[in-house]
Amino acid sequence: MTATMRRLLTGQNSRQGLWLIPLLIGGIACILLALRSEEFLNAQNLLNLVAQAVPLLVIAIGQMLVILVRGLDLSVGAVVSLTTAILALDAPGYVVLPAAFLAAALVGAVNGIAVTRLHVHPIIATLSMMMIVQGGTMLLRPVAGGTIPAIVTDLVTGEVLGIYMPLVWAVLVLLLGWKLIHGSRFGLHLFAIGGGPEIARAFGIADRRNVLLAYIACSLFAALAGCFLAGRIASGDPNIGTPFALDSITAVALGGTQLAGGVGSLQGTVTGALIMALLANGMNLENLSAFIQTAVKGAILLVVVALQPRRFMGL
Question: Does the residue 192 lie in any domain?
Answer without folding.
Answer: yes
